[in-house]
Amino acid sequence: MGGMFRVEVDRPGKLQVSTVCLEYGKPDPNPRMKYTLAPLDQLNADPKVTELCKLLADGRVKQNVAQATAWNIANGIAWEMLAQKNRRESHLAGNEKYFSANELRAALSLTGYCRAATEQLVSYDKSTSQPD
Q1: Looking at the chain, which terminus has fewer C-beta neighbours within 10 angstroms, N or C?
Q2: Taken in order 59, 64, 68, 74, is the CA torsion positive or negative?
Q3: Domain range for 86
C-alpha cells in the first residue's frame, strides 16, 4: 500500500489506521483522546516490535493477532494471561474473551516469525560490517 497523503498545518483531519497498544494496562483509547505521532523507537526500540508493526501496516496480519503478539513481545505478558483476558464481562450474557484460541495460536507463531526475522537481520548486519 504505502500511499501518500497531505497533512494540512493546523487542520484537524481523520485518518483510519490499524494500530496496537504497546503499553499493556493503560486505558483503552477513544476518539476524545488527544494523540501525538512519534517515531516507534521512542516508545519501543525492540526490532521484533518494529517487524510486527510493519506486518500490520502492510495488512499481512490481523489486528487482534498483532495485539496479542505486541503485548507478549513489548510487555512480556504471558500467553496464559492473554488467554484469560476478557474483552467484556457480564453476569447476564457471560464473559467475552479478548482473544480466541485461533488468534492466540497465530500470535504465538507470529512471535516466532518476528524473532527469526530480526535474528536474521542482526546476523546479516554482523557479517557485512567491516572491522575497524
Answers
A1: C
A2: positive
A3: 40-128
Tell which residue, 53, 75, 48, 61, has the closest CA to residue 107.
61
Q: How far apart are CA 49 and CA 106, in angstroms?
A: 16
What does each C-alpha distance from 17 to 12, 14, 56, 104, 105 come to in angstroms?
Answer: 16, 10, 10, 22, 24
CB 104 within 8 A of CB 83: yes
Q: How many domains does the chain have?
A: 1
Could you tell me the three cell numbers for 26?
A: 493503560
Mean pLDDT of 54-82: 97
d(CA 66, CA 38): 20
Judging by beta carbons within 10 Å of its beta carbon (0-12, 13-18, 19+), is residue 68 exposed, middle or buried? buried
Q: What is the pLDDT of residues 107-124, one digit of tens each?
A: 999 999 999 999 987 665
